[in-house]
Design goal:
Layout (H helix, E strand, L loop, with lengths): L1 H4 L8 H64 L3 H8 L5 E10 L2 E10 L4 H8 L7 H109 L3 H19 L1
Antiparallel strand pairs: 1-2
Helix pairs in contact: 2-5, 5-6
Organism: Asparagus officinalis (Garden asparagus)
Keywords: Ion transport, Transport
Protein name: V-type proton ATPase subunit D
């Protein structure tokens, strides 16, 4: 009963058998390709996971160093450092751009940090911030926070790629399992069913041909017997006309003559 439910409702013909075999070949190739894709995505997924763990470990140290550098800058330059920095900043010098990376047919978003070359003048003016007091600590604080931004951008890129790969792997594995446990068994059971029906039809045709041959043989024998009886009837009529006896007596003479011939032959 389970085999019946695992096959398609199709007409058992030779053409449909060829179609089912072609679909089975395609499903087998698709299963192999999706399996390779799943393996490649899993390898990339594990590599990204290692990079995420490494980035998070380094992020804690970098964020601690940047917070400590900010504390040192406030101590060296005073509490009004915030107003000094804001006065010298006109636009962001460190920016983020996105691109896509293709991994086994899956497009992973990648984020990259870069420094805008058109903001070189503002950068040079930022180098003079805190010239009167605590300038070195302010620049150290800026460098520490730029490094923290770089790590955060890298971590954001890894996390986004991680989520995208996780969803792609789940989708691919669902397709692999569907092909392996549903599509391929259903096609195989359908092919077995069509082959069985075709064999049954072949046996029925063979039996039908044997019956037809037997019927034709009996018909030929009946026709031969009828023609022989007709010939004997004609001979009996000729004998009865020639000798002036009844047809029954003529038949008896033919039968007696036939028996004598058989005795002589014996």
């Amino acid at each position: 009963m389970s085999g019946q439910s695992q096959r398609l409702n199709v007409v058992p013909t030779v053409t449909m058998l060829g179609v089912m075999k072609a679909r089975l070949i395609g499903a087998t190739r698709g299963h192999a390709l999706l399996k390779k894709k799943s393996d490649a995505l899993t390898v990339q997924f594990r590599q990204i996971l290692k990079n995420i763990v490494s980035a998070k470990e380094s992020m804690g140290e970098i964020m601690r160093a940047s917070s400590f550098a900010l504390t040192e800058a406030k101590y060296a330059a005073g509490d009004n450092i915030k107003h000094i920095v804001l006065e010298n900043v006109r636009s962001a010098s460190v920016r983020v751009r996105s691109r896509q990376e293709n991994v086994a047919g899956v497009k992973l978003p990648k984020f990259e940090h870069y420094t805008d070359s058109s903001l070189a003048d503002s950068k040079s003016s930022n180098d003079l911030t805190g010239l009167a007091r605590g300038g070195q600590q302010i620049q150290a604080c800026r460098a520490a926070h730029v490094k923290a931004i770089e790590v955060l951008v890298e971590l954001a890129s890894l996390q986004t790629s991680f989520l995208t790969l996780d969803e792609a792997i789940k989708t691919t594995n669902r397709r692999v399992n569907a092909l392996e446990n549903v599509v391929k068994p259903r096609l195989e059971n359908t092919i077995i069913y069509i082959k069985g029906e075709l064999d049954e039809l072949e046996r029925e045709d063979f039996f039908r041909l044997k019956k037809i041959q037997g019927f034709k043989k009996r018909e030929v024998e009946r026709q031969m017997r009828a023609s022989r009886e007709f010939a004997e009837e004609q001979v009996a009529e000729n004998i009865s006309l020639q000798k002036g006896i009844s047809i029954g007596a003529a038949h008896n003479m033919l039968v007696a003559g036939g028996e004598r011939d058989e005795d002589i032959i014996f």
